[in-house]
Write a structure and sequence with these properties.
Function: Part of the Sec protein translocase complex. Interacts with the SecYEG preprotein conducting channel. SecDF uses the proton motive force (PMF) to complete protein translocation after the ATP-dependent function of SecA.
Helix content: 40-55%
Membrane topology: Multi-pass membrane protein
Main location: membrane
CATH class of the largest domain: Mainly Alpha
Number of helices: 16
Structural class: alpha+beta
InterPro entries: SecD (IPR005791), SecD/SecF_arch_bac (IPR022813), SecD_1st (IPR048631), SecD_SecF_C (IPR048634), SecD_SecF_C_bact (IPR055344), SecDF_P1_head (IPR054384)
Number of domains: 3
Keywords: Cell membrane, Membrane, Protein transport, Translocation, Transmembrane, Transmembrane helix, Transport
Strand content: 15-25%
């Protein structure tokens, strides 16, 4: 019991060291967004819908939020729920549908957006306060293995030799940021950056988005700022080598290539060196958020179907906080009723029930807080219900144990031996009961979706904790109390007295006489 309690104390020490004292909250408790996306394609194959669901799930997971769920509804809808995410951010993330493409930059002009910050020249560091990622970061080679493959798009020689026509330049001049665009890999494209502060005339598609294998962000070794690292497959590496090898010798802005998604220039990088190994690093005035956003766009940029948001629901933090408050109050009332009943029925032995519930609650809270930090577990309202139900199972385990003790005393065993034999008979029942709860929680977790999984997870977690509590705390505490004079002698009000255990005075007297070796069988004969 001492070791078990020290382990629980250790959990709280870890919480203190990480300065994490509260669990992560789910969508229904801290607020968030639910967006229903409807496919606009004429035909919607289920395979494409499932692929789109997987890609959107990866995008949402890339935000680093817990309890985000993406589920197919019907034959053309995908429902996305994410807690603590702004509406516009989530809509932009999950609604991006176009193919990702890398195109050479032919011309750059001032945009038509509302930003008051002057558009930086190519290669210039953006002024503080510019609301977008830097339009002109630099792409440089990083260590890796080179690769080559035959081009699948237009030949790179044609892509790199293309010169803008009068019609292209007129299209650039006439384009207004926000106008609809139509991407054709064999034609030029006019597109703006996210803020609308710059617009670009882009050449033919040089590299497809599917040729990008991975994208990640971080601070490269030897650097002091965040950057985005790209890794291409063999075909993409070969085309990237040709693209950067040609661009590096050009003047601004013809030494740049743009990363385009859904008609928006996500980034325009300046090629500083030829990248021959398919591994590139995009540097610029990135912070952690902008670098993470760009990496997510690059990793999860393509959807096989076109979607439009058909319904957007917002759960306010105020409503979520009220639900949390009511849920906690309901749980405390329920546990208080259990504690009151325990003292009324088990007398002073109710101490064991209350102490076991307190230990189980402390262990459960610590685990939920730490799991939120380690694996992103987010507590929702059904999860609170599962935790309360699971913690209450601890009281059930004590009831089973106590009733087995009572059975052993009724059969003529002494209190001391009943405490031991009662545990031996109760142990199997407790394990089987918790095993059934674990099986139910496991099946529900695997088959359910959304917030119901939160109920299943916390039910399974608290059931495991109950097993630990009843073996390493409840049983030792009962045996320790049995060694005291008050409980061990079954005094009145202890919960182990003869009247409460259902043993008659005649039976007690006969038991005492048998221990003395007499042959009397009734009080009168004695």
């Amino acid at each position: 019991m001492t070791v078990f309690l020290l382990i629980i104390v250790g959990l709280y020490v870890i919480m203190g060291l990480t300065k994490t004292w509260t669990p992560k909250l789910g969508l229904d408790l801290r607020g968030g967004q639910t967006i229903t996306l409807t496919a606009t394609n004429e035909t919607v194959p289920m395979e494409s819908l499932e692929l789109a669901r997987d890609i959107i799930q990866q995008r949402v997971d890339g935000l680093g939020v817990g309890e985000a769920s993406v589920a197919i509804q019907g034959d053309q809808n995908i429902v996305v729920s994410a807690p603590n995410v702004e509406r516009d951010d989530l809509a932009e993330l999950v609604g991006t549908t176009a193919q990702l493409a890398f195109r050479p930059v032919l011309q750059v002009a001032a945009g038509t957006g509302t930003s008051a910050t002057p558009t930086p020249e190519p290669g210039e560091t953006p002024a503080p306060g510019l609301p977008t990622a830097p339009p002109s970061p630099t792409a440089t080679p990083s260590e890796g293995t080179s690769g080559s493959a035959d081009a699948a798009l237009l030949d790179m020689a044609d892509v790199l030799a293309y010169e803008p026509t009068e019609a292209d330049l007129q299209a650039l001049a006439d384009f207004t940021c926000g106008d609809p665009t139509h991407e054709d890999p064999t034609r030029t494209l006019v597109a703006c950056d996210e803020s609308g502060s710059a617009k670009y005339l882009l050449g033919l598609t040089a590299i497809r988005g599917q040729d990008l294998e991975t994208a990640s962000f971080g601070i490269p070794q030897g650097d002091l700022a965040y950057a985005v690292t790209l890794s291409f497959n063999s075909e993409g590496a070969a085309r990237l080598s040709e693209l950067t090898g040609t661009l590096v010798g050009n003047q601004d802005p013809r030494n740049m290539f743009a990363i385009v998604l859904d008609g928006t220039v996500e980034s325009a990088a300046t090629a500083q060196d030829k990248i021959a190994n398919g591994e590139a690093i995009i540097r610029g005035s990135f912070d952690a958020d902008s670098a993470s956003a760009l990496a997510n766009v690059l990793k999860f940029g393509s959807l096989p179907l076109s979607f439009e948001p058909s319904q957007v629901e917002t759960v306010s933090p105020t409503l979520g906080g009220e639900q949390l408050r009511v849920g906690i109050i309901a749980g405390l009332i329920g546990l208080a009723v259990v504690a009151l009943y325990s003292f009324l029925y088990y007398r002073a032995m109710g101490i064991v029930v209350v102490a076991s519930l307190a230990v189980a609650g402390a262990a459960t809270y610590a685990m939920m807080v730490l799991l939120g930090s380690v694996v992103g577990f987010a507590l929702n309202l059904p999860g609170i219900a599962g935790a309360i139900v699971g913690i209450a199972v601890t009281a059930d385990s004590f009831i089973i144990y106590f009733e087995r003790i009572r059975d052993q005393i009724r059969e003529g065993n002494s209190l001391k031996s009943a405490l031991t034999s009662g545990w031996e008979k109760a142990r199997g029942t407790i394990v089987i009961s918790d095993a059934v709860s674990l099986l139910s929680a496991g099946v529900l977790f695997l088959l359910a979706v959304g917030s119901v999984r939160g109920f299943a997870f916390t039910l399974g977690l608290t059931t495991l904790i109950d097993l630990a509590v009843v073996f390493f705390f409840t049983r030792p505490l009962v045996e320790l109390l049995g060694r005291t004079r008050y409980f061990g002698e079954g005094r009145r009000g202890s919960g182990l007295d003869a009247a409460h255990m259902g043993v008659t005075q005649e039976a007690l007297l006969g038991r005492r006489l048998r221990r003395k070796g007499t042959t009397s069988t009734t009080p009168q004969e004695a």
